[in-house]
Specification:
Number of helices: 5
Number of strands: 14
CATH class of the largest domain: Alpha Beta
Distance between the termini: 44 Å
Strand content: 35-45%
Order of helices and strands: HEEEHHEEEEHEEEEEEEH
Radius of gyration: 26 Å
Shape: elongated
Structural class: alpha+beta
CATH architecture of the largest domain: 2-Layer Sandwich
CATH superfamily of the largest domain: Myoviridae tail sheath stabiliser
């Protein structure tokens, strides 16, 4: 066994994958108005619209861009530790009960807070469509939104994850180019998601009683200072059952949508 890693297990908890999916889902139902019609704005993961330039699906750039605009693309551009949210790394956090009879549960040291930065690119065929999308996004964030999600599946932790719209927007318009080129407008925005990266989880016993040793003269006297009652142990188990029920309901709701 190595110092940092175990050859039999992995520490991958899909945090960055979950945060990326969460960020993309924020823009899933975005539409623009054109005349009396509502037009859906699709979104994909990728570095802007560079893929369109090398795509062989259509031979004519005008046809290809006309079918795909307006559209959104996003990518992760930075991951960095957020020292302002750091707590003691030795804080132990308990999660799900593994065995109610033995009162064992999953636990982990405090997660490391990270800022995950995403760049969202808007591309449209005209400035009006671009402004419609930009204004809706700015108004929706103002300047941040918080989404409650199951942040750690291993520990069963739910957290409000905040996504901030960073100031400053990069707007590019190629209207001065040759008439043979397709007109398009690109607007880039940066967002910061306040997430967490968890360390390896371990199974351990919950503390249900505390013993106190006192010295009186030369004699040591051990007393049981505190002990969890049967009602308290039952409440722990009940909360665990409710947590699993809540996860099942959340899964069903996602399937319905």
């Amino acid at each position: 066994m190595g110092v940092l890693f175990n050859q039999d297990t992995t520490q991958y908890q899909q945090q960055l994958k979950k945060y990326t999916a969460l960020f993309g889902s924020l823009f899933a139902d975005l539409h623009i108005e054109r005349g009396n019609s509502l037009i859906s704005v699709p979104i994909k993961y990728g570095p802007g619209f560079l893929r369109n330039k090398s795509s062989n699906q259509f031979s004519d750039d005008r046809i290809r861009a006309g079918l795909q605009l307006p559209a959104l693309a996003f990518e992760m551009i930075d991951v960095k530790i957020d020292s302002s949210r750091m707590v003691s790394p030795y804080n132990r956090q308990s999660g799900d009960l593994v065995s109610s009879g033995a009162m064992t549960a999953e636990y982990s040291l405090a997660p490391t807070p990270h800022d995950i930065v995403y760049r969202l690119t808007i591309r449209s065929k005209n400035i009006e469509d671009g402004f419609q999308i930009l204004e809706q996004i700015i108004g929706a964030f103002n300047p941040q939104v918080s989404i409650k999600m199951l942040d750690s599946k291993n520990l069963g932790f739910k957290r409000d994850i905040s996504v901030y719209l960073d100031g400053g927007y990069d707007i590019q318009d190629n209207y001065e180019n040759s008439q043979d080129e397709l007109r398009f407008v690109e607007i880039s925005l940066n967002f910061t998601l306040k997430g967490y990266i968890y360390s390896r989880t371990t199974t351990g016993h919950l503390i249900t009683d505390i013993s106190l040793v006192m010295q009186v003269g030369d004699e040591l006297i051990e007393t049981k200072a505190a002990q969890a009652t049967d009602e308290q142990l039952a409440e722990i188990q009940q909360r665990q059952n409710l947590r699993h029920i809540d996860e099942v309901i959340s899964t069903l709701n996602q399937c319905d949508t």
